[in-house]
Amino acid sequence: MEIKIQPATAGQRRTKPADESKLVFGKTFSDHMFITKYQSGRGWQDARIAPYENLSLDPAAMVLHYGQGIFEGLKAYRWHNGDIYLFRPEKNMERLNRSARRMCMPEIDVPWQMEILAALLKLDVDWIPHSVGSSLYIRPTMIASEPALGVRPAQEYLYYIITGPVGAYYPEGFNPVRIYVTDEFTRAVRGGVGEAKTMANYAASLFAAEMAKKKGYTQVLWLDAVERAWVEEVGTMNIFFRIDDQLITPPLSGSILPGITRDSVLELARHWGLPVSERPIKIDEVIATIRSGKMREIFGTGTAAVISPVGEICYKDQLYRIQDGAVGEWSQKFYDEILGIQYGEKIDPFGWIRKVTF
Ligand SMILES: Cc1ncc(COP(=O)(O)O)c(C=O)c1O
Predict the structure, then answer these.
(1) What is the whole-number distance in angstroms between the Cα of residue 8 and the centre of ligand 1?
(2) Mutate to test the pocket of ligand 1, among 166, 220, 238 (most ligand atoms within 8 A of CB)
């Protein structure tokens, strides 16, 4: 489908941050956005790239009442030679469509999503930062825009993409996080919407996250909602354990978001011949293993940080340090490899990177 392009005029352009090293995540947005409307029976129409602007929504727009909204998060990387690359973008686009199906929303053709993204990046290429570690964060979003009350799937939707430059996650090297295990609150339950990247999951996580912050912790470690015994995720990341020389991560059971970084770490580990196990793991096993000294590393994985080493865990008011809070060898190795592939500094044997051609 044709994408109408309305470039920003000089007066509509936004101020670019002068100092890339001072970028704060999620605060700065590029000049343009993509937007298209969906109507049941007519499909996606009116696709355009226009200057970044406010949305106009009816106060009865269904997303504002029933939360029918999904999103994605991926990045565009500028290599030393100036070329622009994406990392496994089709995985995000397929996940958007899986989220859409789960939330009774319309899907969007993956090749069309790629075409849209390339057109948007072409216009805002100057917004992609230059230093390794910094990138252009891309936020595709779909919301139910039909003005109607009454709980049912909407018949009208908006799909839009905004982008914005983000700085290096670790400008001064890894910073192991302190995490708080909550057995009081849960994020998602099997059969619910935990494996969809839908807005409600993030709203549901806020209360426990704030509580953890007040207690001095960076993130919450989520347990399963039924037994409050099995480890699921950490903050908005998937979680990995290195017990002796085995890498363990909980299986995708329905309540966990299938992270693309998680999948990349698993593929890399298998490629390197590391013993990998996707198996359920109880918090009691985690604690016992830390106590026995066999827990060599714990880390989270996600697009924002790539790898986030865990230094300390608080469970039932007891604090446990993982290997004196030092950064683990595997955490560093996965981080260096994935970042290296994303910035063209390491060979990509998996066919993960996609050059954006303008
Ligand atoms: C709840 C949750 N889990 C895990 C992840 C990690 O997913 P990815 O590696 O695709 O960024 C994210 C981030 O998108 C998330 O929001």
Answers:
(1) 32
(2) 238
C-alpha 162/C-alpha 27 separation (Å) is: 12
Looking at residue 335, its pLDDT comes to 97
CA angle, residues 224, 227, 288, in degrees to nearest 5 = 85
CA R_g for the chain: 21
Cα separation, 118 vs 84, in Å, equals 10
Between the CA of 236 and the centroid of ligand 1 the distance, in Å, is 5
Place of tokens 């029918």: 68
Answer yes or no: is the C-beta of 302 below 6 A from any ligand 1 atom: yes
Condensed to tens digits (0 to 9), the pLDDT of residues 158-216 reads: 999 999 999 988 877 788 999 999 999 999 999 999 999 999 999 999 999 999 999 99
What's the confidence (pLDDT) of residue 325? 83
CA-wise closest residue to 69 among 196, 257, 232: 196
How many alpha carbons lie under 13 Å from residue 165 in its C-beta half-sphere?
24
Q: Which of 281, 295, 296, 305 is nearest to 221 (CA)?
A: 281
Q: What is the pLDDT of residues 227-243, one digit of tens each?
A: 999 999 999 999 999 99
Beta carbon of 342 within 6 Å of any ligand 1 atom: no
Question: What is the total residue count of the chain?
Answer: 358
Joined together, the tokens standing for residue 100 give 């859409």
CA-205 nearest atom, ligand 1: 1
How many angstroms separate the CA atoms of 198 and 71, rounded?
6
Q: Name the residue with tokens 């996606």.
A: 44
Nearest to 311 by CA among 216, 209, 208, 227: 216
Which amino acid, residue 56?
S
